[in-house]
């Protein structure tokens, strides 16, 4: 068992104290939910440009072997179409600024806008290990593989 790391968090929006610090929603949850710290309901039209929504937090990971990934909440993305405008946001270990959520309504044009209300849990933050290898330039790889340079779909072709 590894020791549980501790990361510093600044509360940038006092409503977080009333809503509760983001936390794991079950004993084995992989991520913490992030709140939308907007002042009033925000309508996201389908296929319109992504909007940056404050989470009300700043987190300092401070460990280069860890990164944070900001991803959609699974159910929300599937049921409503609210996903990340940048697919996945990366929180680097040395970033200490406000944690922003790039929110995008992926639904088809003509669909109803999605409304994000103050305090809605709209994204999740998962902490993942990071490997930072040294890259060594070579003319040929030291080992060959059965796949070799086979590209997209090459392992599924009969």
UniProtKB/TrEMBL annotation:
**UniProt EC number:** 3.6.1.23
Q: Which Gene3D superfamilies match?
A: 2.70.40.10
Instruction: Give the first-level EC class, as a single word.
Output: hydrolase
Spell out the family assignment given in the record's similarity comment: Belongs to the dUTPase family.
Q: What name does this protein carry?
A: dUTP diphosphatase
Q: Which residues form the dUTPase-like domain?
A: 19-156
According to its UniProt record, which reaction does this protein catalyse? Answer: dUTP + H2O = dUMP + diphosphate + H(+)
Against Pfam families, the record matches this protein to: dUTPase
Q: Which InterPro entries match?
A: dUTPase (IPR008181), dUTPase-like (IPR029054), dUTPase-like_sf (IPR036157), dUTPase_trimeric (IPR033704)
Name the domain of life: Bacteria
Q: Keyword Hydrolase, does the record have it?
A: yes
Keywords carried by this UniProt record: Hydrolase, Nucleotide metabolism
């Amino acid at each position: 068992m590894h020791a549980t790391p501790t990361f510093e968090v600044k509360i940038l929006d006092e409503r977080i104290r009333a809503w509760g610090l983001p936390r794991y929603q079950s004993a084995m949850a992989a991520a913490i939910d992030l709140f939308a710290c907007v002042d009033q309901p925000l309508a996201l039209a389908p296929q319109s440009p992504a909007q940056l929504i404050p989470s009300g937090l700043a987190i300092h990971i401070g460990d280069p072997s860890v990164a944070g990934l900001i991803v959609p909440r699974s159910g929300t993305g599937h049921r409503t179409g609210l996903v990340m405008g940048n697919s996945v946001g990366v929180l680097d270990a040395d970033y200490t600024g406000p944690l922003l959520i790039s929110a995008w309504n992926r639904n088809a044009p003509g669909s109803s806008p999605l409304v994000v209300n103050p305090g809605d849990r709209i994204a999740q933050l998962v902490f993942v290990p990071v490997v930072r290898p040294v890259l060594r330039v070579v003319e040929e790889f030291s080992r060959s593989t059965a796949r070799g340079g086979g590209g997209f779909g090459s392992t599924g072709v009969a």
